[in-house]
Amino acid sequence: MTLALAALSASAQSAPTLQPGDYIAAVVNQDVVAASEVIQRTERLRQEARQRGEVMPETAGLRKQALEALIEDRVLVTYARENGARIDEAELDRVVANVAAQNKLTMAQLRERLKADGTDYKSFRENLRDQMMTERVREREVQGRIKVTDAEIDEFLDKRRAALEQGGQINLAQVLVPVPEGATEAIVAERRARAEGALARIKDGEDFARVAREISEDGNKARGGEIGLRPADRLPDIFVNAVKGLKTGEVAPQLLRSGAGFHILKVVERQGAASLTQSTQTHARHILLRPSAQLTAEVAARRLAEYKRQIETGKAKFEQIARDNSEDGSAPEGGDLGWMGAGGFVPEFEEAMNALPLNGISGPVVSRFGVHLIQVLERRTVEVELKQLRDQARGALREQKYDEAYQEWVKDLRNKAFVEVREWLD
């Protein structure tokens, strides 16, 4: 069984029928959390912490964390079942068929594979239905909570205009030495030393692009680290501040530390201030995988990395993989998303897309919708009317407020839900 099918088979048991020897850890509305699920989720959390190099909490704390996560899952699913738009059988049939196609199985083979894994086919379908309903309810409810005022839009545009007038457009190149989240002091020291060694080579006169291709670990290393020309307000603030005052061709004298790791930055080109009424539109396509309760983002990312390798080596075409595997409405069009301006995508997606050259393919990119593989097909500059400009600002502000609104929504649902945690032995 492939990873995708194995994970979905496991998550199909999210509303379990208790087996002999199993017992209820919690009751959530009309649903239950089985003790066996808490044990499984605890082990998954332990493995994820180990992969990140983090110090793992004691078993009791980890189990409490696992139980709370499962309770939250049940709160969302039970709410979606009661309040979500119905998923018709034809749409569900299409999603199930897509799962079978991803795993290179016929429908009959899919049923046999699920049976061999002890998963009931009906439960498998209903789990997929729950996932789809939950996602749709989440978007509807959270977006309905977000309010953006005209005053906020005015302030956003004033700040953007000031940034453009001051910063213009910059083409930066970088050498990135990443630092894993939760890395130990020894790992951080080793990565810093590697970055300092690269900076020393550049200061000694070695070609920046050569060092970037050899040392850097970002998606632009093949281009000598070049990110590409873009307005200053479309770059991270810490990048713009780090190169403030540097002329074309100059390298920042000190390493820059960010959440991603250590950066060495070079100003490749500067241009005058961009116009607020001009916008760069991008024609892109993507492949989307949606992690399930048991399919982690890391597993989905490995699968997308393999798709990227197949595409870049000519063994497969991007559009065909998207048709066969992508889990959103763009799949029939080969993942084509059409033309989109600034603010048209969630920030994580847009940041990765903007960093790509034409025809470039990103590494796996995680957003709230899942994990994406992105390719840029075309770019163009267009004049933007005032209404479009304000709509773009409203979209960007809504995205900024999304996470807080989502957390508030989940908290409200949790407070209103019936939750009974029962005593059970380790």
Give the full name of the CATH homologous superfamily of the largest domain: Porin chaperone SurA, peptide-binding domain
> What global shape is seen?
globular
Number of domains: 3
> What structural class do you assign from the helix and strand content?
alpha+beta
The CATH topology of the largest domain turns out to be Triger factor/SurA peptide-binding fold
Rg is 24 Å
How far is the first residue's CA from the last residue's CA? 31 Å
Largest sheet: 4 strands, antiparallel
Quaternary structure annotation: single chain
Number of helices: 14
- Percent strand equals 15-25%
Number-wise, the strands total 11
Domain PpiC: 167-269, 279-378
InterPro entries: OMP_Chaperone_SurA (IPR050280), PPIase_dom_sf (IPR046357), PPIase_PpiC (IPR000297), PPIase_SurA (IPR023034), SurA_N (IPR015391), Trigger_fact/SurA_dom_sf (IPR027304)
Main location: periplasm
Keywords: Chaperone, Coiled coil, Isomerase, Periplasm, Repeat, Rotamase, Signal
Question: Could you describe the 3D structure shown?
Answer:
The chain is an alpha+beta fold and 426 residues long. It has 3 domains: 3-145, Orthogonal Bundle (Triger factor/SurA peptide-binding fold); 169-271, Chitinase A, domain 3 (Roll); 278-383, Chitinase A, domain 3. Helix content is 50%, strand content 18%. It is built from 14 helices and 11 strands. The chain has helices spanning 3-11, 35-51, 59-83, 89-102, 107-116, 121-145, 150-167, 185-203, 208-215, 237-242, 297-312, 318-325, 347-354, 386-416, and strands at residues 24-28, 31-34, 169-178, 226-231, 256-257, 261-271, 278-289, 336-340, 365-367, 370-383, 419-421. The strands form 3 sheets. A 4-stranded antiparallel beta sheet has the order 4-3-6-5. A 4-stranded antiparallel beta sheet has the order 8-7-10-9. Helix 6 packs across helix 14 (386-416). The radius of gyration is 24 Å and the shape is globular. The two termini are 31 Å apart. Keywords: Chaperone, Coiled coil, Isomerase, Periplasm, Repeat, Rotamase, Signal. Residues 297-324 form a coiled coil.
